[in-house]
Amino acid sequence: MANRSSTRCLVGRLQGQRLSCGGLTRFADPAKLRGQSNGSGKNDKMPQVTMYSTRICPYCTRARTLLKRKGVVFEEIPIDQDPGQMAVMVERSGRHTVPQIFIGDRHIGGFDDMALLDDRGELDPLLDR
Ligand SMILES: N[C@@H](CCC(=O)N[C@@H](CS)C(=O)NCC(=O)O)C(=O)O
């Protein structure tokens, strides 16, 4: 049985190296990752991005894909493995569906909300891009 900390994992890219959930979970400290280069040559200091998710969830997959395409390092909290985190997600977002995405303390919403922001050109500024 995984301990509580092992339900948290990071998905994204750090200096070209892929970090992902599933299988052998690789741990990283988001605070250490933020501010590091993603290999693009740009200063990649960005706010913490958190996504509450479940493993089997098409909208989570789409949200992951969008964030990864942007090279965003994000913390993923799989609530299906931790009911306590599900309660935290509902408390923070007021919603019961996954994914729920936060940039810093700002609640973005689900995948559709994030994609709409992106279409409007409003997502990148929130990511300090
Ligand atoms: N419009 C939402 C849809 C989210 C959604 O329907 N997620 C499903 C899982 S993929 C869910 O949480 N279903 C449980 C429920 O509706 O109570 C989004 O874009 O995030």
Your description of this structure?
The longest helix is centred in the middle third of the chain and has 12 residues, at 58-69. Helix 2 (58-69) packs parallel to helix 4 (111-119). The protein has helices at residues 30-33, 58-69, 83-93, 111-119, 123-126, and strands spanning 9-14, 17-19, 49-53, 74-78, 100-103, 106-109. By secondary structure, it is an alpha+beta fold. It has one domain: Glutaredoxin, CATH 3.40.30.10. The termini are far apart. It has 5 helices and 6 strands. The chain binds glutathione.
Low-confidence stretches: 1-29, 35-43
* Number of strand elements: 6
Q: First CA to last CA: what distance?
A: 39 Å
Which strands sit side by side, in order, in the main sheet? Answer: 2-1-4-3-5-6
Q: State the shape.
A: globular
Average pLDDT value?
Answer: 78
- How many DSSP H or I helices? 5
- The name CATH uses for the topology is Glutaredoxin
Q: What small molecules does the structure contain?
A: glutathione
Q: What's the helix-strand series?
A: EEHEHEHEEHH
Just name the CATH architecture.
3-Layer(aba) Sandwich
Q: Could you state the CATH homologous superfamily?
A: Glutaredoxin
Relevant terms:
single chain, 129 residues, six-stranded mixed sheet, alpha+beta, 31% helix, binds glutathione, 6 strands
